[in-house]
Amino acid sequence: MVSSAESADEATAGTLQDGDVDVLSSRILLRPADLGRSLEFYRDVLGLAVYREFGTTADPGVVFFLGTGLLEVSGRDAHAPGRSLQIWLQVRNVDAEHERLAAAGVQVLRPPVTEPWGLIEMWIADPDGIRIVLVEVPADHPLRRDVRSAPPRR
């Protein structure tokens, strides 16, 4: 009897080209300067749901859900993260998040603004200065259109 995992492996084996990577899972790894402070920020202030906790009491690690992605906050690194690391989070109501996070003392880098591309974006910083953009997709934005019912393009 062939397991469903073996069947899936066989099904994808024929579609991958030499050199293609078969990604099964992924996550962002964040090594903050102060682990406790960052865990509190992502869990209690930002309010991300916990996917998994691991490690010891003295050296804990937590993996948070980020929609369809994951964020692991564990370990420590005294070096400031580069400005090239940014986290993008789509939320239902960016104005409500602005009020909630500002009241919690989160550093708001930029309040909600409707961008030229139609998304409403707000920028905050985590305790180590990592830039986080909270994005709301308005109801009339093209990202909300169901392209399955659209006529074919010519």
Q: Give a count of the beta strands, DSSP E runs of length 2 or more.
A: 8
Parts with pLDDT < 50 across at least 5 consecutive residues: none
Please give the largest β-sheet: 4 strands, mixed
Overall body shape: globular
Strand order of the largest sheet: 1-4-3-2
H and E order: HEHEEEEHEEE
Mean pLDDT across all residues, rounded?
86
**CATH class descriptor of the largest domain:** Alpha Beta
Task: Summarize, please.
With 154 residues, the protein is α/β, with parallel strands linked by helices.
Task: Report what the structure shows.
This protein is an alpha/beta fold. It has two domains: 21-77, 2,3-Dihydroxybiphenyl 1,2-Dioxygenase, domain 1 (Roll), CATH 3.10.180; 80-154, Signal recognition particle alu RNA binding heterodimer, srp9/1, CATH 3.30.720.110. Helices cover 20% and strands 31% of the residues. It contains three helices and eight strands, in the order αβαββββαβββ. It has helices at 4-13, 35-45, 94-103, and strands spanning 28-30, 50-55, 60-66, 69-74, 86-90, 107-114, 120-125, 131-136. The protein has a four-stranded mixed sheet with strand order 1-4-3-2, with helices on one face. The chain has a four-stranded mixed sheet with strand order 5-8-7-6, with helices on one face. Strand 3 (60-66) and strand 4 (69-74) form a beta hairpin. It is globular.
